[in-house]
Each structure stands twice: as structure tokens, then as C-alpha cells.
Amino acid sequence: MPRTTKKAKRTKPSDYFSDIAAWPTEWMGVDEDLEIGRGLLEFFIPFIQHLMDEEYAKKTIDSHGSNLNILGREIIERLNEADEDKRKLSPRELILHYVDEEGGPFLSFGTPMTSLSTDTLWRMMLPVVNF
Length: 131
Known about the structure:
The chain is mainly α. It has helices at about 15, 25, 30-55, 60-80, 90-100, 110-130.
């Protein structure tokens, strides 16, 4: 009889996203972006943990985590292009600037369907992260 291997329980966001600590480095365009990216991650990680604690499906957590990675990249990209003046905002203020009850930013590299998917996440994230 074949043995079945039981998968280890995922208990922290890095169990889903092994590269999560590197996201800010991946988003970085200039050196100043690294600190901003790390600050954004301080808001994203508790949200992913919330999804895990609420026992959302693995696929849902994967999808929302990937969309958070997209949001971080989009915020940093905008700071480096058209919104240089927003660089002085805190990570919290940046999230609130780009995300509201109606959704998040239209993604510069996505499709309208990508934006619809991420808008749902942005609306979910706002109350959970205690803005």
C-alpha cells in the first residue's frame, strides 16, 4: 500500500510566498524605494496572515498575495514615474492614496480584467489592516 505524505501546515505568509521578504528589492527602481517597499510589506504581511487565520482556500491566498505583490510594484513604479511628489508619504498614506473603497489603481501593465480582480482585494484589505 502506498504511503501518503501529509503536507506541513502553513502557518505564516512566507510558507505561501517564500520570496516575500525579497519583494521590496524586486520592486525597487532606486535606492530610496527599498525602505518604502519594506514599509508596504509591513501592511501586506498582516493581511496575508489574516487570510490564513480565516482559513481562506490556498488558491485564494495565493491569488491575493500575488495581487499584493502587484500593488507594491505598481506603487513603487508610480513613485518613480509620475508621482515623485508622493515619495514623502508614509507607506500607510501611499496605500490610502492609491487604494480606496472603490478599488485600487488601474494597473499600468495589466488588463481591465486584472484590475477588476485586484479591486476586490483592495476593498477587502482596507478594513482588515486597520487603516
